[in-house]
UniProtKB/TrEMBL annotation:
The protein's annotated pathway: tRNA modification; tRNA-queuosine biosynthesis
Domain of life of the organism encoding this protein: Bacteria
Name listed for the protein in its UniProt record: Epoxyqueuosine reductase
Subcellular location: Cytoplasm
Amino acid sequence: MRMSVPSLSAPPDYAALARDIKRWARELGFADTGISGVDLAEDEQHLQHWLDAGRHGEMEYMARHGTKRTRPAELEPGTQRVISVRMDYTPPGTANAWDVLGDGEAGYVSRYALGRDYHKLMRNRLQKLAERIRAVVGEFGHRAYVDSAPVMEKALARNSGLGWIGKHTVLINRHAGSYFFLGELYTDLPLPVDPPASAHCGTCTRCIEVCPTQAITGPYQLDAKRCISYLTIELKGSIPEELRAPMGNRIFGCDDCQLVCPWNKFAQVATEADFAPRHSLDGAKLVELFGWSEEEFLKRTEGMAIRRTGYEGWLRNIAVALGNAPPGDAIDAALAGRADDASPLVREHVAWAQAQQAARKRRGG
């Protein structure tokens, strides 16, 4: 029997293509893939209320792009669908987070930032995914994003079925918790969409109760100006004094709201070797980190998200943690060594830390 040859002009089988896309994504190292439409009207309203309340602090970029963030076709004309992917980031063998938080002499770095910066790694793999799609359908409109543009990544991921947005405003997957990165491929292909994820936080409020600075002001309400991740990464000036003591030993980011989340008992171990901790940053001592020169900082954080805080911000954050540390000669010496730092910002936080240490000693530790 003579086999028919399909016409090159025949439209692709988009349902089959969607299945292939998810398979290819797994082969590229993504843990999950979902496809959503572009309607984010409710999320646009929520975002605008958040901005109007000034809860974004100094993150002016959150308001800079108007509706491009909530209307994908304005950011990338022709966009009909968004392919969302996630990648687990907790590598095996990482020091226990609670143990590090309980060690006042150690510096706590958010678990996502311990290894290689994920942005370029994930974007490159999304580009490879696009190349596989192109090999089947020919040229098509697309653009890959990984925290690189105004994108409502959590809302899009929720709409694609990858998880729900928890009361702490972090995406939660019922099979993998919340320790994962997100990326998106905007496309003009009319792919079938996946059903959105339903919420499963129930009556739990652990994330709200545990926040050291009460940054989660209510369910699904985050005041970024109080969030330790904002204070240690996004904020470039002085950390408000009333928030310094609650920061404890957190020097880059904060994971407390995720650490107490019951769903993280299902968190998956990362398969990407590049996410493994570098330079023992999953529990390094504050005194050692405070002694890094700018050259050492730049060398040891090359290719890492920690670079975002900058050297001055790094010293500022550690100075606060040293002020909260148990009294000791090594702590005193480290602070004294930076008391005349060239940076007024560092000097200010060192002076605060020294005052904290002095007060603690007067109280007997």
